[in-house]
């Protein structure tokens, strides 16, 4: 199999070929994109070629039950953030939120604040995040006393440059722990 050096971003057509590995033999083979899409059911969890029958909401409920935030020694906020255009990020809360209602705003291109006055302390707050949008973007977050600031950047490795940019948050996971 050849190396993929570069590929264009575009629409996948039903007759395009998708390269996959056979789970039993490890052999590489090509299948039609339409066959691949038909094998994926976004409303259930697929593992080992079989469908578990669990809806995504069932999985989240199970996680919430196993990881009960009431037993933790810190307050926690878990969310997925999505930001488009020049709008403020929209947070989808995951599990229990024991920190409080954080209000998200956009202060400039690629700069966002999650405000909850007097709730954060840079000595006792840990921010865990992951940017899921692209390999061409970066995510940086840091706390102050009254807000968490997030900056997103477009990264151009060829030019060794970083530029603050909107629309880099897409289902981006953030967890804030306040000890």
Beta-strand level of the residues, as a percent range? 35-45%
How many DSSP H or I helices? Answer: 2
The span between the termini is 50 Å
Query: How would you describe the shape?
Result: extended
Average pLDDT, rounded to a whole number, is: 73
In total, the number of domains comes to 2
How many DSSP-defined strands? 13
Low-confidence stretches: 1-7, 40-51
Which structural category do the helix and sheet elements fall into? mainly beta
Give helix % range. 10-25%
User: Rg, please?
Assistant: 20 Å
Write the element-wise H/E pattern from the N-terminal end onward: EEHEEHEEEEEEEEE
Largest sheet: 5 strands, antiparallel
What would the keywords be for this entry?
extended; 43% strand; 13 strands; 2 domains; 179 residues; mainly beta; single chain
Describe the structure.
The longest helix is centred in the middle third of the chain and has 11 residues, at 56-66. The protein is 10% helix and 43% strand. The protein has helices spanning 33-39, 56-66; strands at 17-21, 28-32, 44-47, 50-55, 75-82, 90-93, 103-108, 111-115, 125-130, 137-143, 147-156, 161-164, 172-178. The strands form four sheets. Strands 7, 8, 10, 11 and 12 form a five-stranded antiparallel sheet that branches.
């Amino acid at each position: 199999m050849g190396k993929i050096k570069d590929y264009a971003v575009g629409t996948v057509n039903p007759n395009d070929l998708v390269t996959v590995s056979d789970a039993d033999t490890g052999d590489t083979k090509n299948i039609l994109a339409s066959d691949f899409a038909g094998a994926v059911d976004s409303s259930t969890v697929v593992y080992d070629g079989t469908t578990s029958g669990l809806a995504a909401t069932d999985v989240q409920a199970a996680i919430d039950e196993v990881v009960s935030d009431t037993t933790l020694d810190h307050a926690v906020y878990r969310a997925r953030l999505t930001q488009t255009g020049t709008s403020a990020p929209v947070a989808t809360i995951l599990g229990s939120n024991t920190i409080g209602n954080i209000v998200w705003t956009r202060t400039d291109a690629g700069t966002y604040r999650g405000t909850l006055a007097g709730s954060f302390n840079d000595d006792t707050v840990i921010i865990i995040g992951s940017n899921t949008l692209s390999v061409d973007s970066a995510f940086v977050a840091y706390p102050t006393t009254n807000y968490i600031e997030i900056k997103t950047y477009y990264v151009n490795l060829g030019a060794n440059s970083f530029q603050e940019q909107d629309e880099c948050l897409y289902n981006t996971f953030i967890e804030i722990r306040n000890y």
